[in-house]
C-alpha cells in the first residue's frame, strides 16, 4: 500500500513535492535574475571600457595620420612643385627641368627634418618615370629596387598604385629600411589631378607599422586583444598580430554594428568592437577572444551555478526528509480506510480525495438508506391507496391495521374521491433545465399531491397517489352539522387550481365523486370520479367536474342523437373531393357548432360523430383515387390520436389538420386529371392538323393562316402548339409532306421537275427547287438523275 501511494501520479506526495520545489526554486530564480542583471551590467561596463580604449587608439593614430596628410598638403601646394607640374616654361627652357627637380629634392630634405615621425616619403613623376626623394632623384625602376622590392609586392603592382588616377587614401605597403630589411608600412597615397587624361605625379608618405604599434602598445586593449586599423577597402593598415583575419570575417557588419559576436572556422569565439575615424574614415577594430573578454563574467557565472547547485542539493535532501515525515500519518489513515474500500488494479487517486470520498461515501450511504426506506414506505402506502380505491385490498389484512402501519387516519364517516388530470404543463417544464422529462414529470406529480394534501389537511384528511396518467386523492371529510360536503370539495378543488396555476403555471381538470358514508364505498366513489373525468372530452379542460351535477345534466340530454344529416354529409364530401378547403372547413365548423355549442352531446355520441367525419373523408379519397395512397393508410395512428383527444378543442384541431391534408391530396389529384385531359385534347388537335396537311398538300394556298382558319384557331397559337407536341413547325411539316410526295412523282419517268412542283402545290418552280434542296440537300433535277441511273 505504501509503494502504491508514493509512486501514484495523483498522490498528495506529488502535490507536496511540487509545492516544496516551487518554494526551493523561488530563490534560485531570483539568483538567476540577479546573475542576468549583473552579467548585463558587467557586459556594458566591459563594452564601455573597450570602447574608451579604442577611442584612445583612434586619437593617437589620427594625430599620426594627420601629420601625414599635413605633409602631403605642403608638398602638393609647394610653389616649386606646382611650377614643375603645371608651368609651360620647360618648353622654352628644357634644361631648367632637371634643375627644378633637384631643388624639389632639397626641399623634401627640409620636410624630413620637420616631420621626424614620418619614416619615408617621395614623389613619383609620371612624365619621365622618376622618383624624387629627399636630396636625390632616381629612375622609377631603381627607386622600386631600393624602396619596395619584395616577392609579395611586384614592380607592376607598385606602378599600378603610382598611376591610379584621382586617388587619395591610406593603403598597406612594404618598405626597405635603412638596415635593408622589409618593413610593413602604412602609405598615404595622393595623386595630382589628371591633365589630358594622364596622371602627373603621386605623393607617397609612409609610416612604419612598428612606429604605429609602439605608440599604443602600453594600452590594455593592445596587450589582450587583436587591434586592427582598416582603410575604406577593409585592407589591414596596421595590426598587432601577424595572423591574418579569418576568410569569413563579416566586414559588412563593421559599417553598421559597433560591436558584435563572431565565431571563426577554427571554433574560436571573438568579441568584435569597432569605431570609425570621422576625419580619416579609417576603421579601428578590436578583436578579443571571448575567454578573455568574459573572464570576469565567467567567474561570476561559476559562483552563481555553484550556489544554485548547493541550494538545490540541500533543498532536495530537506524536501525528501520533510515529505516523508509529513506523509506517514496520511499514509496510515489511507491504509485504514482502504481496508473497507477496494480499488481496481492500477487505479490512480489522491489521498485527501480518497479520504474525503470515503467519508462522503459513508454519509451518502446512510442518507441513501434513509431515503430508500422513506421512499419504500411512500411507494407501499401509494400501492395500498391504489388498491383501496380500486376495491382490491387484501381482505386478510384488516384495514385498521394497514392504516396504522402507514400512519393514516380515516376515522370520519364521509368519504369522496378527487381525480386530477394535468392539462397544461409546458411552462412548468421550461423553467426546469438539465433534468430529464421523466424526472420533471415526477416533480410535477409530487407538487400536485403535496398541494392537494396540504389544502385538505387544514380541516380534513386526504391521501393522494398516482393511478395511470392521473392523480387520485382519497378524501375523508370532517363536516359540521348541516354543512354541504360537495360545496366543500368544490372549494378545495378551486383553491387547488388557482394556487397551482398562479404559482407553477400548471393547469388542471378535477373531477369529484359523490359523498359516501362508508369506507367500503370508496371503490364506487373512484368509479364515479372516472366517469366524471370522461366528460372532459365534451366539457373542455381546466374544469371542475362534479359527478352529481353531470348526472343531473345527462338526465336532461335530448334523445335525438347528434347533428350530421345526409345532405350535410353530401355537401361535405363534395367540398372534400373538389379540394375546396375553405368550403370544407366552413361545413366542419358548422357541424361542430351545432353539436357542441347549441345542443351538447354525450361522450359516446361524440366519438360516433368523429368516426362518421373520418369515414366521410376516407370516402372522398376513395372516390378521387386509390385509397392505398391515402395518408390514413400510411399513418394509422392519426385516427388513434383523434379518438384519444382530451377535449372538443383538441378534437377540432386534429380534424382540421386531417381535413387540410385530405383537401391538399384531392386538389392535387384534380389538377393532375385536368392536366391529363388538356394534354389529350391538344394531342388530338395536332393529329387532326397532320391529317389536314396530308389531305391538302396539293393546294397552293395551304399555309399556316389557312390551317388556323380551318380549325378556328389563331395561326400563332396552332404553330406553337404543333411545335410543342410534334417537335417541328407547321411550315416545316407542310414542306416536308410536299417534298416527300414530290419524290414519289419524280420516280416516274414521264414526270418532269415542273410537273412534280405543280403536283405538290408549288406554283413557282424556283421555290420548289429551293425548298427541295433545303430538305434533301440536293436539287430535284439531281435527285431525278440519281433515280434514273
UniProtKB/TrEMBL annotation:
HTH araC/xylS-type domain segment(s): 687-786
Gene3D superfamilies: Homeodomain-like
Domain of life: Bacteria
Transmembrane segments annotated in the record for this chain: 12-35
Keywords, alphabetical: DNA-binding, Membrane, Transcription, Transcription regulation, Transmembrane, Transmembrane helix
Protein's name according to its UniProt entry: AraC-like DNA-binding protein
Protein source organism: Paenibacillus aceris
Amino acid at each position: 500500500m505504501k509503494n502504491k501511494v508514493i509512486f501514484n501520479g495523483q498522490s498528495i506526495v506529488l502535490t507536496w513535492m511540487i509545492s516544496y520545489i516551487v518554494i526551493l526554486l523561488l530563490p534560485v530564480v531570483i539568483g538567476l535574475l540577479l546573475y542576468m542583471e549583473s552579467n548585463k551590467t558587467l557586459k556594458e561596463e566591459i563594452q564601455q571600457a573597450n570602447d574608451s580604449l579604442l577611442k584612445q587608439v583612434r586619437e593617437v593614430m589620427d594625430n599620426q595620420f594627420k601629420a601625414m596628410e599635413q605633409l602631403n598638403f605642403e608638398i602638393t601646394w609647394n610653389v616649386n612643385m606646382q611650377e614643375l607640374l603645371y608651368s609651360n616654361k620647360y618648353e622654352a627652357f628644357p634644361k631648367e627641368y632637371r634643375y627644378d627637380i633637384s631643388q624639389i629634392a632639397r626641399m623634401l630634405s627640409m620636410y624630413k627634418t620637420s616631420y621626424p615621425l614620418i619614416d619615408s616619403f617621395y614623389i613619383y613623376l609620371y612624365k619621365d618615370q622618376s622618383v624624387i626623394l629627399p636630396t636625390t632623384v632616381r629612375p622609377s625602376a631603381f627607386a622600386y629596387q631600393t624602396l619596395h622590392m619584395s616577392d609579395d609586392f611586384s614592380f607592376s603592382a607598385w606602378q599600378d598604385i603610382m598611376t591610379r588616377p584621382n586617388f587619395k587614401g591610406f593603403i598597406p605597403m612594404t618598405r626597405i629600411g635603412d638596415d635593408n630589411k622589409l618593413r610593413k608600412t602604412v602609405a598615404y597615397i595622393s595623386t595630382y589631378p589628371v591633365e589630358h587624361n594622364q596622371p602627373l605625379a603621386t605623393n607617397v608618405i609612409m609610416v612604419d607599422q612598428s612606429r604605429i604599434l609602439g605608440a599604443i602598445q602600453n594600452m590594455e586593449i593592445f596587450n589582450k586583444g587583436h587591434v586592427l586599423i582598416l582603410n575604406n577597402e577593409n585592407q589591414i593598415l596596421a595590426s598587432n598580430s601577424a595572423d591574418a583575419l579569418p576568410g569569413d570575417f563579416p566586414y559588412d557588419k563593421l559599417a553598421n554594428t559597433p560591436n558584435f559576436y563572431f565565431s571563426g572556422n577554427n571554433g574560436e569565439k571573438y568579441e568584435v568592437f569597432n569605431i570609425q575615424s570621422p576625419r580619416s574614415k579609417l576603421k579601428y577594430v578590436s578583436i578579443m577572444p571571448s575567454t578573455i573578454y568574459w573572464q570576469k563574467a565567467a567567474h561570476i557565472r561559476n559562483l552563481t551555478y555553484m550556489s544554485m547547485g548547493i541550494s538545490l542539493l540541500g533543498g532536495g535532501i530537506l524536501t525528501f526528509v520533510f515529505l516523508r515525515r509529513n506523509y506517514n500519518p496520511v499514509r496510515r489513515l489511507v491504509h485504514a480506510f482502504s481496508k473497507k474500500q477496494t480499488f481496481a488494479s492500477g487505479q490512480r487517486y489522491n489521498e485527501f480525495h480518497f479520504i474525503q470520498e470515503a467519508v462522503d461515501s459513508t454519509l451518502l450511504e446512510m442518507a441513501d438508506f434513509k431515503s430508500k426506506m422513506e421512499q419504500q414506505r411512500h411507494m407501499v402506502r401509494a400501492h395500498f391507496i391504489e388498491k383501496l380505491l380500486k376495491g382490491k385490498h387484501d381482505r386478510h389484512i384488516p384495514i385498521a391495521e394497514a392504516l396504522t402501519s402507514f400512519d393514516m387516519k380515516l376515522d370520519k364517516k364521509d368519504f369522496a374521491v378527487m381525480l386530477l388530470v394535468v392539462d397544461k404543463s409546458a411552462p412548468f417544464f421550461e423553467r426546469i433545465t438539465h433534468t430529464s422529462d421523466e424526472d420533471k414529470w415526477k416533480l410535477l406529480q409530487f407538487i400536485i399531491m403535496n398541494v392537494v394534501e396540504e389544502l385538505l389537511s387544514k380541516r380534513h384528511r386526504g391521501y393522494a397517489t398516482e393511478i395511470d396518467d392521473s392523480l387520485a386523492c382519497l378524501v375523508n371529510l370532517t363536516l359540521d352539522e348541516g354543512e354541504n360536503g360537495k360545496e366543500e370539495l368544490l372549494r378545495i378543488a378551486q383553491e387547488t387550481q388557482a394556487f397551482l396555476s398562479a404559482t407553477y403555471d400548471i393547469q388542471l381538470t378535477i373531477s369529484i365523486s359523490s359523498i359516501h358514508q362508508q369506507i367500503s364505498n370508496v371503490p364506487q366513489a373512484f368509479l364515479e370520479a372516472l366517469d366524471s373525468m370522461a366528460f372532459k372530452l365534451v366539457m373542455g379542460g381546466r374544469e371542475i367536474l362534479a359527478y352529481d351535477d353531470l348526472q343531473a345534466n345527462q338526465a336532461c340530454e335530448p334523445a335525438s342523437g347528434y347533428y350530421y344529416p345526409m345532405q350535410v354529409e353530401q355537401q361535405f364530401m363534395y367540398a372534400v373531393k373538389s379540394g375546396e378547403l375553405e368550403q370544407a372547413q366552413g361545413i366542419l365548423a358548422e357541424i361542430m357548432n351545432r353539436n357542441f355549442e347549441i345542443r351538447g352531446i354525450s361522450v359516446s355520441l361524440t366519438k360516433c360523430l368523429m368516426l362518421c367525419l373520418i369515414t366521410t373523408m376516407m370516402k372522398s379519397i376513395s372516390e378521387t383515387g386509390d385509397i392505398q395512397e391515402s395518408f390514413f393508410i400510411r399513418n394509422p395512428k392519426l385516427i388513434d390520436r383523434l379518438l384519444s383527444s382530451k377535449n372538443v378543442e383538441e378534437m377540432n384541431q386534429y380534424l382540421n389538420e386531417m381535413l387540410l391534408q385530405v383537401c391538399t391530396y384531392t386538389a392535387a389529384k384534380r389538377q393532375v386529371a385536368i392536366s391529363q385531359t388538356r394534354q389529350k385534347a391538344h394531342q388530338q388537335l395536332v393529329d387532326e392538323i397532320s391529317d389536314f396537311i396530308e389531305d391538302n398538300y396539293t393546294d397552293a394556298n395551304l399555309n399556316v393562316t389557312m390551317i388556323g382558319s380551318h380549325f378556328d384557331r389563331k395561326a400563332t397559337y396552332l404553330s406553337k402548339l404543333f411545335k410543342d407536341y410534334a417537335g417541328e413547325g407547321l411550315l416545316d411539316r407542310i414542306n416536308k409532306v410536299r417534298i416527300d410526295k414530290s419524290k414519289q412523282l419524280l420516280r416516274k419517268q414521264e414526270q418532269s421537275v415542273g410537273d412534280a412542283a405543280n403536283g405538290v402545290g408549288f406554283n413557282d418552280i424556283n421555290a420548289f427547287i429551293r425548298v427541295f434542296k433545303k430538305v434533301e440537300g440536293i436539287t430535284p433535277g439531281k435527285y431525278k438523275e440519281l433515280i434514273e441511273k
